[in-house]
Design a protein that fits this description.
Layout: E1 18-20, E2 24-25, H1 28-38, H2 43-46, H3 48-54, H4 64-80, E3 84-94, E4 103-115, E5 121-131, E6 136-146
Antiparallel strand pairs: 1-4, 2-4, 3-6, 4-5, 5-6
C-alpha cells in the first residue's frame, strides 16, 4: 500500500492502488453526541438496561451512520483535504456491528480515476471499514468529483 497524504488530486490516483487510513477509536462520548445531534434516540443506542435484557448483541452498539461518518472523516484527513469537490453516489453495505470501544480504519482501493471537464476528475473507490479484530463492518463504493493537479506542461 502506498503512503497517502492530504490534498491528493484525482490524477494522483490510479486504478488498483490501495491505501489505509489511520485508526480511530469510537467512544461513548462519540455515540452520545451523535445520537443527540441526529435525533437517533433508538433504545439500542440509549438504554443500557434494555440492551442487557433484550439486546441482540453484547455491548454498546453504534449506528452504522456514525461509523460511516467517522470513516469519511478519516479519508478527508488522509487524502482529500481541499481536493474533494463533491460526493456524487455510493453503494453501501453493513456487514456487521460496531461497538463503543472499537477502533476502525478504512482500507481503500481505487477502482476508477478519470478526467471530466475543467481539470476535475471522477474517482470511484471501494472502501472497507475494518475494526481492530480485522472484521469488515461496512463496505461502500463512493463516486466523488475531485480536483485535478495542474499540469504546467500544458500551458
Amino acid at each position: 500500500m502506498r503512503k497517502i497524504g492530504p490534498g491528493m488530486c484525482w490524477n494522483d490516483l490510479t486504478a488498483g492502488e490501495e491505501f489505509r487510513t489511520i485508526g480511530r477509536t469510537i467512544t461513548e462520548t462519540d455515540l452520545v453526541n451523535f445520537i443527540n445531534t441526529t435525533g437517533m434516540v433508538e433504545v439500542l443506542f440509549t438504554d443500557i438496561e434494555y440492551l442487557k435484557a433484550h439486546g441482540p448483541m453484547n455491548g454498546r452498539v453504534v449506528p452504522g451512520a456514525l461509523v460511516y461518518c467517522m470513516a469519511e472523516g478519516l479519508l478527508v484527513q488522509s487524502m482529500m483535504q481541499e481536493t474533494g469537490l463533491a460526493f456524487l453516489h455510493m453503494e453501501f453495505n453493513v456487514k456487521g456491528p460496531t461497538f463503543v470501544g472499537d477502533t476502525i480504519h478504512v482500507e481503500c482501493k481505487v477502482l476508477q480515476a478519470r478526467p471530466t471537464s475543467r481539470g476535475r476528475g471522477l474517482v470511484r473507490t471501494r472502501n472497507r471499514i475494518v475494526t481492530q479484530r480485522n472484521e469488515t463492518v461496512i463496505e461502500y463504493t463512493p463516486l466523488r468529483m475531485m480536483a485535478g493537479r495542474f499540469d504546467a506542461s500544458r500551458t
